[in-house]
Amino acid sequence: MTFTDFCGRGGKRAAGIYLLLWAVSTGYLAVKGADWVFPIISLILFGIILSAVGWWLTRRSDAPAVAVSGPGRQTIWFIAYIALYAFLLAGYGLGAVKQAVADGPAQEWAVLAYKLLIHVLMPAGLIAWLGGSLSDSFDLGLRRRGVVVALFLFCGLMFLLIALVSPSLALLATAGVTGASILPWALASWLWMSAEAGLCEEYLFRAGLQSRLTAWLQSPLAGILISCTLFGLVHWPGLYLRGGPGTDGWSTDPVQVAAFTIATLSPFGILFGTLWVRTRSLLLIVLIHGAVDALPHASEMIAIFR
User: Fold this and answer.
1) Cβ(81)–Cβ(126) under 8 Å?
2) Going by C-beta distance under 8 Å and a sequence separation of 6 or more, which residues neighbour residue 153?
3) DSSP character for 103?
4) Which of 46, 45, 66, 4 is nearest to 279 (CA)?
5) CA 254 and chain centroid, separation
6) Please, is 126 exposed, middle or buried when counting C-beta atoms within 10 Å of its C-beta (0-12, 13-18, 19+)?
7) How far is Cα 196 from Cα 120, in angstroms, rounded to an integer?
8) N or C: lower Cβ tally within 10 Å for the chain?
9) Is residue 73 exposed (0-12), middle (13-18) or buried (19+ Cβ within 10 Å)?
10) Is the separation of the CB atoms in 259 and 253 below 8 Å?
11) What is the distance between the alpha carbons of residues 268 and 272, in angstroms, rounded to a whole number?
12) Handedness of CA 253, 256, 258, 260 (dihedral sign)
């Protein structure tokens, strides 16, 4: 895929609109006295540098596009489902599951099962009902050139980055886990978060929504930028309606919450969206996503399962 093919019809226009929206959102955070530095780091690191590295590593993968019949119709249905998901299924539905099952391992398994239902099983059912290809959306893509190298490089990089910039290791030490004893818990947390966060979010937003936007707009770049913007905004109901003080990104100002989701969260989607377009390997983006969340979740996993 050449860069011209990647941009497709309207890709450069979509990039201009996205950068303007991101800049306005970041500026709004600055005016409100919120953190505006991390959004810049997020865009430069994930949206530009790591996306470029991923592009180069997978330059020979030759991944076929996802086959989508009637892409406009499928996209509209998917956006409608995501709206239902954001305001009802991911909020009140998940809350109901947590209330129905007592705290502990049983609740964690119940939450995982419910998340897989609303992020994977129901969207897959929607794709099948609309006449889409499930084999395309669940493609592992491990035999394509550059996928295995990208998998090891990005997963290792995410573990290293999170270990350096987050308090994850300190929290593990507080839980009495240090040295070599960190490894089994980190691996267990990686597998868990690859399912709970990686598979759930990447299937819904990359294999599902982005693939349909790309086919409809005839532009992989536009598909990435629109889907990553919606990925950020989907967090708005949870932060504004159900969040509170102490929750990262929460505010009494609904516009500030929306600005946070766009400026801070959407750049992550650019990296995963680029890797999906280049490789169409669901396993690749699921495991990299899981690696981002593995160490931060490990101490919580110890407290629940040990």
Assistant:
1) yes
2) 53, 57
3) T
4) 66
5) 22
6) middle
7) 10
8) C
9) middle
10) no
11) 7
12) negative
The two structure tokens encoding residue 164? 């350096």
End-to-end CA, the chain: 47
The answer on pLDDT for 67 being more than 90 is no
Question: Which of 220, 194, 219 has its CA nearest to residue 273?
Answer: 220
Residue 106's CB: how many other CB atoms inside 10 A? 10
The DSSP output letter for 65 is P
Those residues with Cβ within 8 angstroms of residue 154's Cβ, 6 or more apart along the chain or in another chain: 50, 54, 275, 288, 291
176-185 pLDDT, tens digit each: 888 888 999 9
Longest dimension (CA), the chain: 55
Distance CA 200, CA 118 (A): 8
How far apart, in whole angstroms, are the C-alpha atoms of residue 92 and residue 85? Answer: 10
Quote the CA–CA distance of 159 and 288 in Å, as a whole number: 9
What number of other Cβ atoms are within 10 A of residue 112's Cβ? 14
**Structure tokens given for 206:** 């990359």
Identity (one letter) of the amino acid at 274?
T
Q: CA of 188: how far to CAs of 50, 157, 275, 290, 297, in Å?
A: 26, 18, 24, 11, 10
Residue 141 and residue 61: Cα distance in Å, rounded? 9
Residues contacting 224, CB < 8 A, separation 6+: 210, 214, 269, 270, 273, 274, 277
Q: CA 283, CA 271: separation in Å to the nearest integer?
A: 15
CA–CA separation, 172 vs 17, rounded Å? 42
- Over the stretch 238-293, which tens digit does the pLDDT of each residue have? 888 777 787 788 889 999 999 999 999 999 999 999 999 999 999 999 999 999 99
Residue 162: name the closest of 297, 269, 16, 304 by CA.
297
3-state class (DSSP) for residue 177: coil
Sorted by sequence, the CB contacts under 8 Å of residue 60 that are 6+ apart come out as 145, 146
